[in-house]
Amino acid sequence: MLLPLPSTTTPTSSPFLSHHPNGLKSSSISGASKLSNKERRFIRKLGLAKISATFELKPPPYPLNALEPIMSQETLEYHWGKHHRTYVENLNKQIVGTDLDGLSLEEVIVNSYNRGDLLPAFNNAAQVWNHDFFWESMKPRGGGEKPSEDLLKLIDRDFGSFEGFVNEFKTAAQTQFGSGWVWFAYKDSRLDVGNAVNPLRSDEDKKLVVVKSPNAVNPLIWGYYYPLLTIDVWEHAYYIDFQSRRPDYISMFMDKLVSWEVVNSRFEKAKAVVEQMEREDERKRKLEEQRFTTDEAPANAIFPDTDAAAE
Amino acid sequence: MAARSLLTRKTLATVLRRDSTALGAQAAAHSRGLHTFTLPDLNYDYGALEPAISGEIMEIHHKKHHQTYVTNYNKALEQLHDALPKGDASTIVKLQSAIKFNGGGHINHSIFWKNLAPHREGGGEPPKGSLGWAIDEHFGSFEKLVQKVNAEGAALQGSGWVWLGLDKEFKKLVVETTANQDPLITKGPGLVPLLGIDVWEHAYYLQYKNVRPDYLNNIWKVINWKYASEVYEKESS
């Protein structure tokens, strides 16, 4: 199970990232055209020929002992070094040679979700993404009340106060019945249907929400959710440090681990993406309108009075 | 709970037996006549299943996890009891998920404790008699049943249970999984649980960490097939 794949040979000081015994790296394989036939046969023999796009186990942006004493090094060694690693390795095995090979992680998630009729790769793909996002949501000596002014304004509007938000987030994490995740997300006002746009959108529709998701599910599959923060409430995330005391884990996470710098910057990015999509919609709408007026000109000519009145 | 810990296991069992049914349902001296539930006692000490399951796991699993399901189940039932006569439809509906989860947790764990027995008290001895025959008939052999349960238990996403059940309607044995704390009955009204294995991480994490298959391999050494056989004989006759 711990066979290192070439994809995981990122140079790093971490003891958990093993190097491939043959020294093959994904770059040398993707440049397959430069290889001699003999080399290609060798690679095929190793079963590595189709590794055109594999995912890597990204290390957390801090040493494994950096979240002590809240989240122990032992927890990180298992949670990142075993659980997260296994998701990456199983995902890579599952997608080799399938239609999902070569897609981005986000694309694999959305495609393998398959409108609720999950393909086997979904759980591993989503869990890889969720864990990357979770590690980045934390930092040593984090927590406290540090959302940016802009974000705090929206938190006050949508949750009444920062405290109101914290309570809703904690309650959601406490009442996720089973394994799963809780998300703090910025939600665009679009309808959750392809191409559907809320015809009477206002800024009030774009809001902050707290949502729970079971097992591997994440907001990417719902469309128009921009996750800002997540907490892993699978028992493996806290069992070594807190055993059955999930509420203590949740409180400590909020008070001492959340990286508000990261949350703030995700919020800024989310707003920028949404604004750009709105500008794009506006541009399309104007184009449509222009085409409409040009196309419909002869018909309008039937009612010359109306036109005259309008002028 | 403080008073309870002063009692020895045997005295406690006697006290409980006097006024409790199989699942610990208690006709509480409740002015409103509401039945509440109590944590059932175990028939063995916490450390008696070692080395298959550590005493630490058993103690937290029983005293903390199961107790929390019982507490929250009773809380939800009390709220339901208040909402029903008022015709408070939205509260009644809102309580359903907490009742299913915590009630399911209580039902499943109550069965699970009976499914286990220390090795020296017959834990791990394969079933004999009619259940043994039925397993051979439906799965080929006892070993094949074990393989099937282990495979389905290991493949279960997230938290849940893997079951050996009796399908009373079709008169056959089935292996099923349920998510979270869903009891087996949610998979079909004719299904009777004979054996349920908890594959929530809390059931094995302190000892087996991320290696759920090892937990599944080892738990067979402490499975109480006498209990499963009794249920099977009663339900299939």
Describe this structure in words.
The complex is a heterodimer of chains A (311) and B (237). With 311 residues, chain A is mostly helical. Chain A has a domain at 73-267: Iron/manganese superoxide dismutase, C-terminal domain (minor pseudopilin epsh fold), CATH 3.55.40.20. The relative contact order of chain A is 0.10. Chain A contains 11 helices and 3 strands. Chain A has a 3-stranded antiparallel β-sheet, with helices on both faces. The termini of chain A are far apart. Chain A has helices spanning 26-30, 37-45, 73-95, 105-113, 121-136, 149-159, 162-174, 239-242, 246-257, 260-300, 304-310, and strands at 180-187, 207-214, 225-232. By secondary structure, chain B is mainly alpha-helical. Helices cover 51% and strands 12% of the residues of chain B. Chain B has 10 helices and 5 strands; from the N terminus they run ααββαααααβββααα. Chain B has helices spanning 2-6, 9-18, 55-86, 89-94, 96-114, 129-139, 142-155, 205-208, 212-219, 225-236, and strands spanning 25-26, 36-37, 160-167, 172-179, 191-198. Chain B has a 3-stranded antiparallel β-sheet with strand order 4-3-5. In chain B, α3 (55-86) packs antiparallel against α5 (96-114) and α6 (129-139) crosses α10. Chain A binds chain B through residues 78, 82-83, 86, 123, 177-180, 214-216, 234-236, 239-240, 243-244, and chain B through 60, 64-65, 68, 97, 101, 157-160, 179-181, 200-202, 205-206, 209-210.
